Amino acid sequence: MNTTSHQLLKGSLSAIILKLLADTEWMYGYEICQKVKQITDGQLKITEGALYPALYKLEADGMLITKTQIVEGRTRKYYAIAQDQQGNAVDRLAQIDQFLHQLQRILTPSDLHQLPTP
After folding, report:
1. 10 to each of 1, 19, 25, 76, how far by Cα in Å?
2. What is the pLDDT of residues 14-51, one digit of tens each?
């Protein structure tokens, strides 16, 4: 992944996390990384070094709650959207979706002919 793609991914990480958790509810970090890789056919790969600071920030902001479970003798931390933040998460995702739609309108060459000439 090139530097630009990495920066775009980093800037989109909160939205990716919220979307996956909205669809799946409880997930642990490695599972999130693998799900993104699977959905994007390996085109996007989230490193744990990028993921965990985003998870911690969302948790500190009150968007996420956590629980721990012992799995095969190891402690695993699961994340979910806080019940009282479900609406905020949906609103945030809707705003991001609207932004992406507008960005796509700008980037789609077929729409360029509709721009007014100076």
Report:
1. 12, 15, 22, 24
2. 889 999 999 988 999 999 999 999 999 998 888 888 89
- In the structure, how many helices (H) and strands (E) does the chain have? 4, 3
End-to-end CA distance of the chain: 38
Q: Which architecture does CATH list for 3-112?
A: Orthogonal Bundle (1.10)
Of the candidates 62, 115, 110, 50, which has an alpha carbon nearest to the alpha carbon of residue 88?
62
- pLDDT at residue 69, rounded to an integer: 94
Cα angle, residue 41 at apex, residues 35 and 44 outer, rounded to 5°:
70
- Looking at residue 93, its pLDDT comes to 84
